[in-house]
Design goal:
Layout (H helix, E strand, L loop, with lengths): L7 H16 L3 E4 L6 H9 L4 E4 L3 H15 L3 E5 L9 H10 L3 E7 L25 E4 L7 H19 L5 E7 L10 H6 L5 H4 L21 H5 L4 E5 L7 H15 L3 E3 L19 H4 L3 H6 L4 E5 L6 H10 L2 E5 L12 E5 L3 H4 L12 H23 L6 H10 L5 E4 L3 H9 L8 E3 L10 H9 L5 E6 H5 L14 E8 L15 H9 L6 H8 L2 E5 L2 H8 L6 E8 L2 H11 L7
Parallel strand pairs: 1-2, 1-3, 3-4, 4-6, 5-6, 7-8, 7-9, 9-10, 10-11, 12-13, 12-14, 14-15, 15-17, 16-17
Helix pairs in contact: 1-2, 1-5, 3-4, 3-17, 15-16
């Protein structure tokens, strides 16, 4: 048991750390600074905590986000006072929006050193607004049994609030007085005998999940669903802890109702295709055919989780206005279209056991979807196979087939997530998609991916050049990384997503203010950080580098494309696949 009795701050910080460890904490990301010294030492010296120092606070926060996303458990994030914590803000927002547990600990000046021109002191009260699940400022450390019990119980509550009822960030502000370094104080050592550690921590144990027995009381409109032949299941972006269990539950729901499943590319469903052999993966292309879209209009929709990325799908649902049920255990409103919607506050894995063990026969509506999928999928795959020129969409198509089974794949926002939705081919690779779609930003892409990789199997990041350049300080984590990350950077010298928007027509301002080309040479950039680099010049070369993946380090594979040519290809071809 690692309680540091050198002075008041060291006792306080080590009790805080020990409490969290007994609850299940295993990882802490610590940014350098003076005011946070007691916290840094407490986590760095605890034998059961992997404490990782990270220089840049924004990168650190997204790295912690990736670690927490991978483990499903809260990760501690520590910084000093002043503007340091403000750099956590984007990752805190993403953690809230994508329901990832973080414990954000910001050290602070004590009250008497605020608003008096003391250095590195700002107002840190509720620094992150309403985004945390919970916020509190702790008492200034004092060695008094009542306050130490308060500290212990506050940390238990903070841990719980980061996980339940919905996972997300918790922010604790910690005022600390000097001395911050563990300078021995004889009075503290004398006080040591008053604390019976075994008794003090006796009831601190890992928390179990909230009882979900009440789920059985939810009234499902099962008879309504079973009476409907024109129903679809839409599976949005998902990063379940158990992809196999998730995909199995979706397959069982589809079988019970006889409804087709439209599977987002950011869902594991496309990578467990044997469970759903009639999966609909080309819905975005199908719905570009307005006549076909009308023929396939559903009366009812069950949506699992968040809305898919596809703009075509959103427009279709807005036109059709079907009755819709959203299956998601969270407490958010997940209907941006404001339709005829009912939220069922439970996970798909909880819903399926409530269904009767029966399977519906396939309707003509179901068969129409499958027929259309088969035709478009065949055309799409043939086109990708025949494409020899550089087209960035083919990268996603190749990854779906060439990565080693079970590979974690982090997919950057903007064009990569859309190319995955357009082109990702269903298979049985069990590839695990990861992403930051809570706030849909490009910030922290590299750092989040590195957090996902750390201590995990060899992984891949698919990103554009701007998203990677936005977070190059993430490369500073290279010497701390345990594992391997291959970065496939599609370098089209700018923001390809903007080429698809109406602003692209306004050439006078478009290039400089929207596409924002950076003209960065990735060769010296990678050399500066000691990162392996290779320019991909042929499709076979890319395939060869994907399997097997290295075991250690960071590798950048650059694929150079022309965003205007690629944008023109999409405009000319995406609608053609379902045109006949």
């Amino acid at each position: 048991m690692s309680i540091d009795f050198r002075n008041t701050n060291s006792v306080w910080a080590s009790i805080l750390a020990e409490t969290l460890v007994r609850l299940g904490l295993r990882m802490a990301v610590v940014c350098p600074g003076s005011r946070s010294t007691p916290l840094a030492i407490a986590f760095a010296q605890h034998l059961e905590v992997e404490a990782i120092p990270v220089l840049d606070e924004r990168s650190a926060a997204f790295f912690a986000l990736g670690l927490a996303r991978q483990s499903g458990l809260p990760v501690v994030l520590v910084c000093t006072s002043g503007t340091a914590g403000a750099n956590f803000y984007p990752a805190v927002i993403e953690a809230r929006q994508s329901r990832v547990p973080l414990l954000v600990l910001t050290a602070d000046r004590p009250p008497e050193l605020r608003d008096c021109n003391a250095g590195q002191a700002i107002d840190q009260q509720k620094l992150f607004g309403d985004f945390p699940n919970w916020y509190a400022e702790l008492a200034t450390p004092v060695l008094e049994m009542g306050l130490l019990r308060y500290l212990r119980q506050t940390m238990i509550y903070a841990w719980e609030r980061s996980l339940w009822p919905v996972a997300g960030p918790v922010h604790l502000n910690l005022p600390l007085r000097d001395p911050l370094a563990p300078i021995p104080d004889p009075r503290v050592e004398e006080w040591r005998s008053q604390l019976d550690l075994a008794q003090f921590f006796a009831t601190v144990q890992p928390l179990t999940e909230v009882d979900t027995a009440g789920v059985s009381n939810i009234q499902l409109p099962l008879a309504t669903w079973q009476a409907c032949e024109r129903g679809v299941i839409i599976a949005g972006p998902a990063q379940p802890r158990s992809p196999l269990q998730y995909c199995t539950a979706v397959a069982q729901l589809s079988a019970a109702l006889g409804w087709p499943v439209l599977a987002e590319g950011l869902s594991p469903l496309r990578n467990y295709a044997d469970l759903n052999p009639d999966l609909i993966s080309t819905y975005d292309l199908l719905l570009r055919n307005r006549q076909l879209a009308e023929q396939l209009a559903p009366e009812m929709v069950i949506r699992i989780g968040e809305m898919p990325t596809s703009k075509e799908l959103r427009l279709w649902l807005e036109r059709v206005q079907p009755q819709q049920w959203i299956v998601d255990p969270g407490d958010r409103n997940l209907d941006p279209l404001h339709g005829y919607t009912t939220h069922l506050r439970l996970a798909i894995e909880q819903l399926v056991p409530l269904l009767p063990p029966t399977s519906q026969s396939s309707s003509s509506y179901f068969k129409d979807w499958c027929s259309a999928e088969g035709k478009v999928r065949q055309k799409l795959d043939q086109t990708m196979s025949d494409t020899e020129a550089w087209f960035e969409g083919k990268v996603a198509w190749l990854l779906s087939q060439q990565l080693p089974p079970g590979t974690p794949l982090f997919i950057a926002n903007s064009m990569p997530v859309r190319d995955v939705e357009f082109f990702w081919k269903p298979g049985n690779t069990a590839i695990k998609p990861h992403f930051n779609r809570g706030a849909n930003g490009i910030d922290g892409t590299l750092s989040t991916a590195l957090g996902m990789v750390h201590g995990n199997q060899s992984s891949v990041l698919l990103t554009g050049d701007l998203a990677l350049l936005h977070d190059t300080n993430g490369f500073l984590l290279r010497n701390k990384l345990v594992g391997h990350l291959t970065i496939i950077v599609i370098n089209n010298n700018g923001g390809g997503i903007f080429e698809m928007l109406p602003i692209a027509q306004f050439e006078q301002v478009f290039e400089e203010f929207f596409a924002t080309p950076q003209a960065v040479d990735f060769v010296p950039l990678c050399q500066a950080y000691g990162v392996e680099y290779e320019l991909i010049q042929t499709w076979p070369q890319l395939v060869e580098r994907l399997n097997p993946l290295p075991q250690n380090g960071i590798r950048v594979l650059e694929v150079r494309t022309d965003r205007k040519v690629d944008s023109a290809w999409r405009r000319a071809n995406l609608a053609k696949f379902a045109a006949d």
